[in-house]
Design brief:
Blueprint (H helix, E strand, L loop, with lengths): L5 E6 L3 E6 L6 E6 L4 E6 L1 H11 L4 H4 L8
Antiparallel strand pairs: 1-2, 2-3, 3-4
């Protein structure tokens, strides 16, 4: 599935979100690091919602020392 037309959209210690394909055949997928699987695959909007619900980090822990976001 991963080839020369794949690019990483988002990533952290929990998962990697990647764009696969080009043009009209573009598909987005999330690779879960813990389970070593792709639980979510689909359009950008659907996969982005899954990322925000299950895989994003809290700014409180990522931006340690940056009190603007706390």
């Amino acid at each position: 599935m991963l080839n020369s037309i794949t690019s990483v959209v988002r990533s952290n210690q929990n998962a990697v979100m990647a764009r696969v394909g080009a043009g009209d055949s573009t598909v987005y997928t999330i690779f879960d690091v813990r389970t070593q699987s792709n639980p979510y695959t689909g359009t950008l909007n659907a996969v982005k919602k899954a990322w925000n619900k299950h895989y994003k980090n809290s700014r409180q822990f990522v931006a340690k020392g940056n009190h603007r976001y706390l």
